[in-house]
Design brief:
By secondary structure, the protein is an all-alpha fold. It is about 35% helix and about 0% strand. It has a domain of about 110 residues. The relative contact order is 0.15.
């Protein structure tokens, strides 16, 4: 069998498109109400709904619903795969599907802590609860920073 030798084939690494942008620490976690920035408007609205609609009664109702364990049953990898169709509306630092974020997190932890395999797994599954949004929960109920309900906000 003859093999032809010609010009080298340029292969582009598609993972370059999914690697996080490297920014200075001060550039992360920027939240403002800039109405000219569509992402900031979406983030603001997600948190506005979260802070106005989450209550002790709401949490009790959702706990009662989800702890019946009759909505969905998935192996972990299928649940993670569902996150490939989910982009977190509350995160100003990433607009990629949450599956990408899960692997980025796990890989970052693996690099920083190679001997802590349990920690790698924790990074991979830390956002699995967001799959509830695919099954009817509004994003404001499952994404973003979490706060205790029934308590006044701190300063």
């Amino acid at each position: 069998m003859a093999v032809s030798v010609g010009e080298p084939i340029l292969l582009i690494d598609p993972s370059q498109n999914y690697r996080p942008d490297y920014k200075d620490v001060e550039e992360y976690r920027i939240y403002n109400n800039n109405q000219d920035d569509e992402m900031q408007k979406m983030i603001y609205e997600t948190y506005r709904q979260m802070h106005s609609k989450q209550s002790v009664d709401f949490v009790r109702d959702r706990m009662s619903h989800w702890t019946q364990f009759n909505t969905i049953e998935l192996p972990i990898m299928e649940a993670l795969d569902k996150l490939n169709n989910f982009v977190d509306e509350s995160d100003p630092d990433i607009s990629l599907p949450n599956l990408v974020h899960a692997f980025q997190t796990a890989e970052g932890i693996r690099k920083a802590h190679p001997d802590l395999d349990w920690f790698h797994l924790t990074g991979l599954i830390h956002d699995l609860g967001k799959v509830m949004a695919i099954y009817g929960e509004p994003q404001w109920a499952v994404v973003g920073d979490t706060f205790p309900v029934g308590c006044a906000y701190g300063d």
